[in-house]
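Hello support,

Our group uses your service weekly, and this is the first time we've seen a run hang past the timeout. The protein is Thioredoxin signature protein. I'm not sure whether the cause is the sequence or the server load. Input pasted verbatim:
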Amino acid sequence: MRKRDIFATGVVATLVVGGAVYLGTTANLTQSAPTTEVSQSSSQPSDGELLSLTEKISKITFLDKSNKETSLADFAGKPSIVVFWASWCPDCQAQLPILAKLYEKYGKDVNFIFLNVVDGTRETAENGQKYLADNYKFTYYQDKDMVAADSMEVTNIPTMFILNKDQDVVSVFRSNQTEQTLADVLDTVK
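Update from on-call engineer: The timeout came from a worker crash unrelated to the input. Re-ran successfully.
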């Protein structure tokens, strides 16, 4: 009887550890908060961190709607807001209408780069495309296999990077923001 208990305990322990490893590798991206509450402010990275983020973001690539690889260099000359999001994320669903209003207001002066974080499990390119087509009219790009999100150390979505016309990161938001907060930052870079 004792050997059977030890064996059963070993099986359970193996399943728990295996499950934790599986979840750790497939679910490393979370929504920014358990609610869709909007933040009135956000702590900003230091100048050194902004410089490091600028270096990293200049190297990311992503796919356009025809699966052509593109980069931020293709958007040079105008300020940009780079938004990491997913269709399954309630916080992203709450933030996108605010971003749509800002897109209408600033779209001629600011590049809006919506990077759909595609992990192939929770988020697929098809899900992201359908979600936007049903609700919005802006162009979006794919971050296939979360390569850009990983290189930018994005662990929560939505995450938004605001860049000046020289493509330097000037502000980072790792949670939902009000329209006014984002507009204030966009006004300083346009």
